[in-house]
Amino acid sequence: IILTMRTCSQTFSWLSTFRFSSSMEILMMAVGSFCAIVHGAAQPAVLLVFGAMADTFIEYDIEMQELKDPLKICVNNTIVWINGTIHQNEKNATIRCGLLDIEQEMTKFAGYYAGIGCAVLVLGYIQICFWVMAAARQIQKMRKAYFRKVMRMDIGWFDCTSVGELNTRISDDVNKINEAIADQVAIFIQRLTTFVCGFLLGFVSGWKLTLVIIAVSPLLGVGAAVYGLVSRELKAYAKAGAVADEVLSSIRTVAAFGGEKKEAERYDKNLVFAQHWGIRKGIIMGLFTGYMWLIIFLCYALAFWYGSKLVLEEEEYSPGTLLQVFFGVLVGALNLGQASPCLEAFATGRGAAANIFETIDKKPAIDCMSEDGYKLDKVRGEIEFHNVTFHYPSRPDVKILDNLNMVIKAGETTAFVGASGAGKSTTMQLIQRFYDPTDGMITLDGHDIRSLNIQWLRSQIGIVEQEPVLFATTIAENIRYGRDEATMEDIIKAAKQANAYNFIMDLPQQFDTHVGEGGSQMSGGQKQRIAIARALVRNPKILLLDMATSALDNESEATVQEALHKARLDRTVISIAHRLSAIKAADVIIGFEHGRAVERGTHEELLQRKGVYFMLVTLQSKGDKALNREDTESKSDHICPLYRASLRQRSRSQLSNMVPDPPLSIARDHAESMYVESVAVEEDVKPVPFTRILKYNASEWPYMVLGSLAAAVNGAVSPLYALLFSQILGTFSILDEEERRTQINGVCLLFVFVGILSFFTQFLQGYTFAKSGELLTRRLRKIGFQAMLGQDIGWFDDQRNSPGALTTRLATDASQVQGATGSQIGMIVNSFTNIGVAIIIAFYFSWKLSLVILCFMPFLALSGAVQAKMLTGFASQDKKALEATGRISSEALSNIRTVAGIGKENMFINNFEKHLYMPYRAAIKKAHVYGLCFGFAQSIVFIANAVSYRYGGFLVDAEGLHYSFVFRVISAVVTSGTALGRASSYTPNYAKAKTSAARFFELVDRLPDISVYSEKGEKWDDFKGSIEFLNCKFTYPSRPDIQVLKGLSVAVKPGQTLAFVGSSGCGKSTSVQLLERFYDPETGSVKYETNVGAQGSQLSRGQKQRIAIARAIIRDPKILLLDEATSALDTESEKVNEP
After folding, report:
1. How far is CA 137 from CA 23, 35, 134, 188, in A?
2. Is the pTM higher than 0.90?
C-alpha cells in the first residue's frame, strides 16, 4: 500500500524519505524496529495466557455448578452421585473435580502477565526513543541539505519560485517528513507485527475458524489507497503563505495605500483551496474508518457463530482456543486498523518529501559554490559582449537582449543610458553571472566568464544597487560583508570613501549601530552610502553602479559622486544612472534601445548625434530648468514614451526608498541576544481558556454537536465489546444446550447491529470535525492576518515581528489551535464516553473488583499528564529555535541577489546550521521522555491485568462471583484505560495548541495606538489639503535614544507644493510617515485643515488615501500619486509637470 501511493504527477517511494540516514541511524532504526517487533508480539503472546486462564475458569465454573446439586459429591477427583454411580455429562464423559486450586492458578497467570508487562516497558522505551532520535538526526541533515541547495540555486530559479513558499517548505514540510520517519514508523511496525502474530496464533490454534475470518478480511484492505489528496492541501497552504509573506514584507507600502482589507481578502481567497482539500480528506478518512469497523464487527458476528459451533457441536476447540483464535484475529485486525493513521502520516510525509527532495536533487544551471573554473592571476577588467541574446527564465517569450555587441574597456568608466526595459540592468546581472546568455558569450580579459570560477569572479566585482539591501546586523558587519578579512581600519577607510563616516560617527553606537530589519533604521541615503562602502571595501577590479546615487539628496550625491570618482581609478566602472550629473563624467556612454547598444561616445559626441542620449538629456533639462522652453516643447512632442515610462519606473521603485520595507531579519551577534531576551518575554503569554478558542468555532456548533454525539457513540463501542465478549465466555459454562444456542445467536445479532451503527457514527465524526476544524483554521488565519495588518508600523519595527517569523506563525499556530478543537474534541468525547460507559458496566457487575482495577486509572492518567507536561516545554522551545532559523532563511532568500552578489551564501548557511543545533538537542531530549511515557502507558495495562485477574480469582473462589463478570469488569475498565491512554497521547497536540492559542490571542487582543480598522474620526467631503506640523517631536519606538524630529513646525496651504530638502537622516521621510500616521508624534501635532484633535487623533488612518501630498512631498515632482490612486499616472497625465 505504502510504496504505491502517488503524489501529484510523480511516483516517489516512501523509503527514499530515509535517504539521509547514516549507518548509525540505520543501526538505531534497526534496534528500534527489532524492539517494536518483539513488542508487537507481546499482545498475541498474552492471548496464550488468556486462553489457558479462560479454560481454567470455565472448568472451575462447570465443577461448581455440578456440585451445587445436593445429589452430587466429589470422590477421588471425580463427580459421583450420592448413590455411588459416576456422573456423566451429555457427552457421556466423566467430570473431574477437586484438582483446581483457582487461586494458585491465578497467581501463576498473574506472574506471566507481570513479566510481559515489564518487557513491554523496556521495549516500548527503546523503540520510540531510538526512532525519534534517528529521525531528529536525519531531519537535521535534511534541513541543512535543503537550505544549502536552495542557497546554491541560480537566480533564474528564484525568479520562478516564491520565497514565501520556500520558507513554508523549510518549516512545515520538513516537520511533516519528521512525523513520517519518527515514532510513527515504530508504532506502525509494532501494530503490523501484532497483526501478523495475531493471525499466526489464529492459524496455529484453529485454522478452520481463522480461514473463515480471513475469507472476509480482504474487505479491510479496500480503500487504503485514499491518501493522494494530501499533497494538494500542502500546495494550497503554500500559496496562502506566499501571499502573507509578500504582504508582510511590504507592509509600509500596503499601509500607505490603505490596502489592508484588500490584502486580507486576497489571503482569505487562497485559504479556500486548503479548506476544500482538508474537508475532503476528513470525509474520506471518516468513510474509511467507519467501513473498517463495520467489516470487523461483521467478521466477528460470523466468527463467533461458527466458532461456538466448532466448540460445542464438533468439539474441535476448547473455549480457550476459541478465544485465542478469536482475539488473535481481532487484535490483529484492530492493529491493522490502528495502523491507518500512520499511513496518513507517511503519505503526508511523502508528499512533503517529494517537494523537498526535488529541490535537493536539482542541479543549478549556475552553481555559485562550484570549485570549478579558472582564477586569473591578473585582472585588467576588459569586458566584451559577443552577439549576446537573452531571455529571463521566468519570461522565456520576452527577448531582453538582442544580439548585443559592445566592449567595456579596462580602467574606463562606462555609463549605460536608455529606456526602462532596454536591458541595462540585465547586462549587469549577466556580468555577475546571475544568468547565462541564451546565445553568444561575455568575456573578461578575453576569457569566457563561464570558464571562470564563479565565486572568484564575483569577488572581483563590487555592486551598488538602486535599492540597496542591508542585513539586520551592525553597520560594521554590513560593510565587512564586502570582504571577510577586512580590518576595522579598512572599514573606516571604505566608510570615508563613501562619505558615510561622518553620519556613522554621529550615531550613539557608531559602527556598532544595528541597522534594523533590511536597514529600516537608516534613511535611504544612509543605506546607500553603507552599501557603497561595502562595495569599496573589497577593492574590486570592476565596479557596477546601478542607479547608485538615485536615493541621495544633492549634497550627499555630490560627495558620493566625488567618492565614486576617486574610486574609479585603476578599475573598470559601469554605471546606470538617469541624472546627468552622474553620466556626464563617464569616459564612454553607451545608449541602449530594445536590447541593443545603438550608440557609443562621450557626452559631447552623443549630443551631436541627437539619438537616445540626446532625448534623455533634453527631457531632463526640461524638468530641471525652464530654459529654451518653446524650443524644447516643440521637440518634446515626439519624445519616446519609453523615457517617461523609464522615469516613472525608477521613481516608482524609489517609493521603497522612502518607505523602507524591512525584508526579513536574522538573529545574529548583537541581534541574537536582543532576540533571545525579547522572545523570553513574548513566550510567557497568558494561557487562554479553552472556551475562548471554541467561541471562534461557534458558528459551526451544529457540526460540532453532531460530531460529538457520533464520537460519544463511537466511545461506547469499546465497553460494548467487553459486554459481548464476556457474554460469549459465559455461554460456555451453561449446561442447557438450548439456552446456550439462543444466547449465542442473540450476541451475533448484536455484533451486526453495533457494526452498522459504527459505520455511520465514524463517518459523521470524521466529516463534521474536519468541516468545523478546517473552517476554524481558515478563520483563525484570516483573523490573525488581519490583526497583523492592523498593527501600527512601530510594531513591525520590533525584531520579533519580522515577516519571516510572522509568516511561520500564521502557517503553524492556526493549524495547531485547530488541533485543540476539531478531531481532537472528537477524541476526547470518545475517550470520556468510553470511560463513563465502562465504569458503569464495571460497577454494576462487581464493585469490589472495579475498585481494585480503578487503582490503576491514576497511573494511566499520570502517564498522560507527564507526557503533556514534558512536551509543552519542548513545543515552545522547538518553535523559538525554528523561528530563529526561519528569520535567517527568510532574510537570505528575500535578498538572494545581494547575497549572491557579495558571495555571502556560505555565511548564511553556517548561521542557519548554527541555529539548528537547539531544536536538535530539544528533539533528542524529547525522545527519551516520549519513549519512557510510551513504554509506561503500554505496560501499565499488563500490570493492571495481572493484579486484577489475581484478585478476580479470589472473588470467584471466596464470594462465588461468576467468572464471566470478572472478564466483563476487567476488559471494560482496561479498554477504557487504553482510551484514557489515547486521550493522553493527544496531550502533546493540546499542549502545542495552548501555546499557539495564547500567542494568537495576544496578537488579536493587542490594541495598536494607531488603528487601521477604526471608524472613529471625521471624514470630510471637501478636504482641501491644508497641513500643519506644530512643534512635532519624534523618536522611533525601536530607537528611543535618537530623537529624529526636534520640534518641527511647518505649514502648507491647499494646492501648494512643499519640498523637503536636507541631508540624509534629518527627518524628511519621517515627516511624511507622520503625515500618513504610520507613527504619531510624541509631543506636538500634525493638523489637517483646522481642529482635528491632538495628534490628528480624530482622523482615521484610512483617511491617508486622501492625502495625495504624502507622496509628492519627497518624490521627484514629475510623478504625482493621486488621491486614492494605486498606481502611477496614466499616459495622458504623464506629460512632464511644470515645476
Report:
1. 12, 20, 5, 20
2. no
